[in-house]
Design brief:
heterodimer; A: mainly alpha; 2 helices; elongated; B: 2 domains; 12-stranded mixed β-sheet; 4-stranded mixed β-sheet; 14 helices; globular
Chain lengths: ~60, ~475
């Protein structure tokens, strides 16, 4: 299998931090936050990691 | 100083076995996901008696998972509008709608893209550009029409954002001359993305002005073309004329971007043979199958490209039979050391008779449906060619049943058909009434269309 990318841990941490931003209740920012999460999940995939289970917006 | 990509280096170094293991891992996750989220794929698997957990190898996958095609998708969409039951996410997770061009006359496939898919789409556009030399901070000219509904329209601007490049997206409405003027405002230009035909057209426009690209754009790193085939000699001539390597990418809406691209050796190899397109198989698993037997073809043989998206979330395709005909090559035949599946560059064509004209997919049946909806038309023939200015042109010669070639009624008929053809295909075609004796009589299958573009490109090579 493919070796871990040298920056995988940092990208995963950024992804987790972005997912935590979903707590923000401001609807003006919600789309941008999902955009950032989507970019980071695509970044994880680009380096060979699986698609995160929580990459999609939760039910509201 | 330019640094190498750790990401690409890891894929470059994968053995064939390790690459297949990575594909299988992603494939198993994707199959489990679509089986849980999509009634379309659940029914497909169930009808074949396959459970996702039974797919333990890529051979199992080919044997036990049925292929889908455009007609399957259209039926599903019609029954469950707008996305069909192949949508694998709740509709609220769709951030962008992509559709295929609709010029087949069969209908448009609809794809729901999530934020993740949009970013992935950008990455899948940037990947071949990176391999062609585009780096952050480079100035890039995009000559492919942007926006609209297609992945080909949305992907490139997103790809340039992902690249971190200075994107110059040439407006659709700009003429070739205006695009040359735009390019000349950026003498630091490093990269061009264009259809095969447009590279041909803009090169001729530059030549007519007495411009030499290698002098006008001394920092050019690479050019990537897509969408149409070409002779290798033409690609060589383009490399010489532009003073950089010309690359080819193969992509589609179903692939959510580029699926394969040439390596640093480019589209025209030094040995005069066609280049090698290397498939980004960890994102789109590529099978090349014999459309009659459904079996994988051997290296050196031609077959149909069948695609599976491994990390698309919204509307993934699983074993989608593209209708694209390609020659499979052994990965080691390139010599670049990659183990990725290889297909021959410059020669991808269609199993049906679709023609790619100025970036539009045009099926003869679409033109037939317009022309023969006028009962006064007896026959027609179409010709796609490259004119002296290097532009792709389409001429339709048609004959009326009455034999008339002039007069008000014929003029009105010509104008009506030209307008309807433009509206159905997005391509302007020049219609010319001729006597019936000028046109052939088709006794068996009608072969109404000729594509003379390769000869046109070859003529340009001799002038270079």
């Amino acid at each position: 299998m493919i070796d871990d990318h040298p920056d995988r841990a940092r990208i995963e941490a950024a992804y987790r931090a972005a997912v935590a931003l979903r707590d923000c209740a401001d609807p003006l920012l919600a789309g941008q936050i999902e955009g950032v999460i989507g970019r980071l999940s695509a970044l994880l995939v680009a380096i060979g990691a699986p698609v995160p289970d929580d990459a999609l917006p939760p039910d509201r | 100083m330019s640094r190498a990509s750790a990401t690409l280096a890891r894929y470059d170094a994968l053995s064939r076995d390790d690459l297949r293991a990575l594909i299988l891992d992603r494939l198993q996750r994707q199959l489990a996901r679509v089986n849980g989220c999509s009634a379309f794929y659940r029914d497909k698997l169930r009808s074949a008696g396959t459970r996702p957990e039974q797919v333990r190898s890529l051979d199992d996958f080919a044997r036990a998972v049925p292929a889908s095609n455009k007609a399957d998708f259209l039926r599903d969409q019609e029954a469950h509008p707008p996305f069909g039951t192949r949508l694998c996410v709740p509709e609220r997770a769709v951030a962008l709608v992509n559709m295929t061009g609709g010029t087949s006359g069969q209908g448009q496939e609809i794809y729901g893209r999530t934020h993740h898919d949009i970013a992935l789409q950008g990455f899948l556009h940037y990947l071949p550009w990176y391999m062609a030399g585009l780096r952050p901070g480079h100035t890039a000219l995009n000559c492919v029409p942007q926006g609209g509904l297609t992945t080909g329209g949305w992907g490139p601007p997103e790809g340039f954002r992902v690249a971190g490049s200075i994107a110059v997206n040439a407006p659709v409405a700009f003429s070739t001359e205006a695009k040359v003027d735009l390019a000349l405002r950026f003498p630091s230009l490093n990269f061009i993305y264009a259809s095969t035909n447009f590279l041909h057209t803009i090169s001729d426009a530059m030549r007519r002005r007495g411009l030499t690209p290698s002098q006008s754009f001394p920092a050019m790193q690479g050019i990537l073309i897509a969408g149409e085939g070409y002779p290798t000699a033409w690609a060589h001539a383009m490399c010489r004329y532009w003073g950089c390597t010309v690359h080819e990418g193969y992509g589609s809406t179903q692939g959510a971007g580029f699926i394969a691209a040439t390596c640093t050796k480019g589209a025209a190899r030094d040995d005069g043979k066609p280049g090698h397109l290397h498939a980004f198989e960890w994102e789109n698993y590529v099978e090349v199958i014999d459309p009659v037997t459904g079996r994988h073809v051997a290296p050196g043989e031609e077959g149909e490209i069948v695609l599976t998206n491994l990390s698309v979330l919204g509307s993934p395709v699983i074993r989608f039979a593209t209708g694209d005909k390609a020659r499979l090559l052994p990965p080691e035949s390139c010599g670049c050391g990659r183990s990725w599946t290889c297909i021959e560059a410059g020669t991808i064509s269609r199993y049906d008779d679709m023609m790619k004209i100025r970036g539009n997919n045009v099926w003869p049946a679409t033109v037939d449906s317009v022309v023969f909806s006028h009962p006064e038309v007896a026959e027609y023939v179409g010709r796609v060619y490259v004119d002296e200015q290097g532009r792709t042109e389409v001429e339709i010669r048609y004959a009326t049943r009455s034999g008339a070639t002039e007069g008000e009624a014929v003029e009105a008929l010509t104008a009506t058909m030209a307008s309807r053809i433009k509206s159905r295909t997005n391509v302007t075609m020049r219609l010319r009434p001729v006597p019936r004796s000028e046109l052939p009589t088709f006794e068996y299958k009608a072969r109404r269309w000729t594509d003379e573009r390769r000869q046109g490109y070859a003529r340009q090579v001799t002038r270079t």
